[in-house]
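Final report, Chapter 2: Outcomes

The project's central promise was a pipeline that accepts a single protein chain and returns its three-dimensional structure in a standardized token representation, suitable for archiving and comparison. That pipeline is now operational. To close this chapter, we reproduce one record exactly as it appears in the project archive, with the input sequence first and the structure output second.
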Amino acid sequence: MEIKDLKPVLLWQFFDRITQIPRPSKKEGKIVSFLLDFAEQQGLEAKKDSAGNVLIRKPASKGKENLKTVILQSHVDMVCEKNADVDFNFETDSIQTYINSGWVKAKGTTLGGDDGIGVAAALAILASKDLEHGPVECLFTTDEETGLTGAYALSKDFLTGGNILINLDSEEWGEFCIGCAGGKNTQGIFHYTKTAPPAGYFWFEVQVGGLNGGHSGSDINAGLGNANKILTRYLWTLLQECPLLLASIDGGNLHNAIAREARATAGVPDAFKEKVSVWLNVLQADLSAELSQVDKGVKLSVHSAEKPAYCIDAGTGNSLLNALYALPHGVTGMSREIPGLVETSTNLASVKMQENATVTVTTSQRSSTESLKTDIASQVRAVFLQAGAEVVATEGYPSWKPNPGSAILQLSQSIFEKLFREKPKVIAIHAGLECGLFFEKNPKLDMISCGPTILGAHSPDERLEIETVEKWWKFLLELLKAIPE
């Protein structure tokens, strides 16, 4: 069976079509064109703003004209992650999907269920001719995954319909999200001098792999291994025992993903050659024990390398490793109001060498408390400054404060219990949603976020549970029918 044959058929057909459209963050032109063409074909009113956000309006079905307008919101971009051994171009290639034991997955890449399934549900509602609903506005935003810049750019008058918004970007069926963390990125830029590699050095490449990776918000409390931290742990320990020169270093890719892979080329004096393998074996044993419950596939490998054309000057290389080792990573505080909710965290996301003799280290901070978001970002800044790095930080995005008395939440709970004979969970999450920015533009908005179950988001292990998609679709249709006048 192919995904376009699953039920509800129209929703899955749209999802199948979406997987064939390349849509990396900041390069959403093809999916935006698809949405505008779709609206024209359906005879629906549509508009696009300068950021590429698209709004498509559908009139109420007969007899439902007096219902309040509902905004259905999803983002069109996807996280582009693949396994190192997979040949794939996210700017040109279609996602290769398959079905496995009740889940839809992709072959060696992210699936794009986050948030392609939300886009597909909205399109299916817009295209259906037999649904009961009041006026509907479907908002499709751009660049959610790399900074929420589409939602940032949204003008206050772009949404003209109503004050009810359903965000279709949650990843656990049976949960209604009513709050999320705010976030920002902090980068340290290290400027180095290219130096000639000295004679009498043993050069080697070390690699870290076999990690699961995951979302830097929803998975940060799982204790997953971070390839950047592991690589640094290895190199920093070697540096304490002998001189070490870095020729290259690379780890992680996205600010909102926990790094799965990292590598570096380095050299030590020939007299310390044996230390390279000895310490790797020691660390491998330690990590296998430490991560046995969450990342049992963790693997370190090392092999000899050719003498490089140049290396990073020793002073900058040492400062870089000291900073990477000292940078905090993971949960730094739990909520005192909502049991089990991570309040504040930071992620050592990526380490990249640039052409202009610089190394850029990207970190991301999240918190549901604005002052604590600022505080953890300041701690990261202090580490970078101590190491002599240039520091660049984004403005960040606001948190979405929970409203347990929300009218749309109460209606959603009632419909869920009627349909499924159980109570839904009402949660706030540590991940970022665009709802905080929408609320900042329109404080009258009454919002919830919901979706089917997606596991492994932001990694090639991303998978979408088929059974929950059908339940979610059923819930959405009943909710639209029940919106009050």
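Archive annotation: The CA atoms of residues 311 and 419 lie 64 Å apart.
This record, like all others produced under the grant, will remain available to the consortium after the project formally closes.
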